[in-house]
């Protein structure tokens, strides 16, 4: 059964990846907004924001990476919605195919596409002056955190992809996720925010994830932030996976 699942997922993943390679503009589009925000905040607003001894591009990049993922998963919901409306799911169910492999193919495609977008954004940040003395283990830790974050948000994206009534509705859910980093430590230190906003910013998941990635990049002790960040990512992933699979079972039953 396990072999059947992995084989089916690999075949369907190849199908989804071929769609990506035929529309490279999808990956390009998901990187345009994060890069534009990186340019805007570093070159326009960066001089007015005090981040201490850390250059603003170094301070800003972790939050921009999360926005890149939040922007990219909208396309996962969109592609899933198109498959639902085209009837391809019914065709797969009439074949001896592992049921969950259809969803996993979309999720893994999202992981590949978002990884490419993240690499592009990091390369642009390097051109803008981003520097990190982090070692291999720290970079691997950052990559692992971003993979967990991508998987968690992608499984959230599966739900509107399965339930939306229109293509716009399938991707619109990502807007609050893109906005969330603005009320966190991603762009400015939370200490500069008014009381209620600061309280929310300091206790929402993006802040702990951004702080952990930033500390890894700058070779600072990560403290409890990394464990809080991991707890948020794993918790969201488990809950989103549960609801996505339940939604999927109801749709195909």
Structure characterization notes:
By secondary structure, this protein is an all-alpha fold. The protein has one domain (2-252). It is 77% helix and 0% strand. α2 (25-45) packs parallel to α5 (101-127). Keywords: Antibiotic resistance, Cell membrane, Membrane, Transmembrane, Transmembrane helix, Transport. It holds the Pfam family ABC2_membrane.
Low-confidence stretches: none
**Percent helix range:** over 70%
Given the helix and strand composition, which structural class is it?
mainly alpha
Strand proportion: under 5%
Summed up, the helix count is 11
Rounded to the nearest angstrom, the radius of gyration is 19 Å
Short précis:
With 253 residues, this protein is mainly α.
Short key terms for the protein model shown above:
253 residues, mainly alpha, transmembrane
Record the SSE blueprint.
Blueprint: H1 2-22, H2 25-45, H3 56-86, H4 88-93, H5 101-127, H6 136-163, H7 167-172, H8 174-179, H9 195-202, H10 205-217, H11 225-252
Helix pairs in contact: 1-5, 2-3, 2-5, 3-5, 3-6, 3-10, 5-6, 6-10, 6-11, 10-11
């Amino acid at each position: 059964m396990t072999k059947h699942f992995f084989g089916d997922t690999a075949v369907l993943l190849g199908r989804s990846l071929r769609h990506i390679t035929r529309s490279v503009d999808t990956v390009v589009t998901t990187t345009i907004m994060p890069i534009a925000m990186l340019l805007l905040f570093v070159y326009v607003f960066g001089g007015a924001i005090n981040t201490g001894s850390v250059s603003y591009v170094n301070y800003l990049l972790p939050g921009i990476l999360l926005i890149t993922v939040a922007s990219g998963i909208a396309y996962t919901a969109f592609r899933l919605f198109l498959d639902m409306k085209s009837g391809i799911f019914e065709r797969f169910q009439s074949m001896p195919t592992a049921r969950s492999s259809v969803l996993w193919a979309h999720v893994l495609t999202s992981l590949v596409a978002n990884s490419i977008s993240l690499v592009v954004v990091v390369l642009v940040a390097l051109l803008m002056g981003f520097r990190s003395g982090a070692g291999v283990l720290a970079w691997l830790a950052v990559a692992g955190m971003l993979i967990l974050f991508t998987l968690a948000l992608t499984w959230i994206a599966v739900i509107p992809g399965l339930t939306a009534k229109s293509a716009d509705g399938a991707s619109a859910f990502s807007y609050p996720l893109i906005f969330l980093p603005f009320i966190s430590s991603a762009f400015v230190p939370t200490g500069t925010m008014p009381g209620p906003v600061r309280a929310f910013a300091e206790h929402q998941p993006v802040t702990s994830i951004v702080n952990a990635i930033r500390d890894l990049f700058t070779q600072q002790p990560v403290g409890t932030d990394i464990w809080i960040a991991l707890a948020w990512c794993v918790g969201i992933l488990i809950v989103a996976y549960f609801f996505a699979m339940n939604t999927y079972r109801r749709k195909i039953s």
